[in-house]
Amino acid sequence: MGIPPNRVVVGGFSQGGAVALLTAYHRRKEGKVPFAGCVCLSGWLTMKDDLEITDEVIKSTPLFWGHGQADDKVLYEQQPHGVQILRELGVDVSDAAYPMGHSSHPKEIEAMAEFLERVLK
């Protein structure tokens, strides 16, 4: 039976963040239970031109996206670009930038934990 998707937050760092975004939002079929949330850390939005998000997913799957302002692997510009696209589609996005490269920051982890507590309440 397992854990229902509405109790699962998909997430990842770098390429894992890109996969999490793809999993949570891209072509999630109408009628499938949406995920509780999505976390993207230093990732990027793939397949932007082919993005289809159902209204059910838009309403039910918020996003936390943290990124380093000095990231030299996945450029910081990927975050505001992806955030803008998802917000324009109606996704509830919490985004934050941190003074770091391609890594994590204690304040980012704290913000992510607060996001997880909120969506899994």
Concise summary:
36% of the residues lie in helices and 18% in strands. It is α/β, with parallel strands linked by helices and 121 residues long.
3D structure, described in words:
The chain is of the alpha/beta class and 121 residues long. The chain is 36% helix and 18% strand. It is built from four helices and four strands. It has a four-stranded parallel β-sheet with strand order 1-2-3-4, with helices on both faces. Strand 2 (37-41), helix 2 and strand 3 (63-68) form a beta-alpha-beta unit. The longest helix is centred in the C-terminal third of the chain and has 14 residues, at 106-119. The radius of gyration is 14 Å and the shape is globular. The chain starts with 8 loop residues before the first strand and ends with a helix.
Strand-helix topology:
Blueprint lengths: L8 E5 L1 H11 L11 E5 L13 H6 L2 E6 L9 H12 L3 E6 L7 H14 L2
Parallel strand pairs: 1-2, 2-3, 3-4
Number of helices, counting only DSSP H or I runs of 4 residues or more:
4
Order of secondary-structure elements: EHEHEHEH
Strand residue content: 15-25%
Distance between the termini: 21 Å
Shape: globular
Main pleated sheet = 4 strands, parallel
The oligomerization state is single chain
Number of strands: 4
Low confidence ranges: none
Radius of gyration of CA atoms, rounded to a whole number: 14 Å
In spatial order, strands of the major sheet run 1-2-3-4
- The share of residues in helices is 25-40%
Structural class of the secondary elements? alpha/beta
Averaging pLDDT over every residue, what do you get? 95
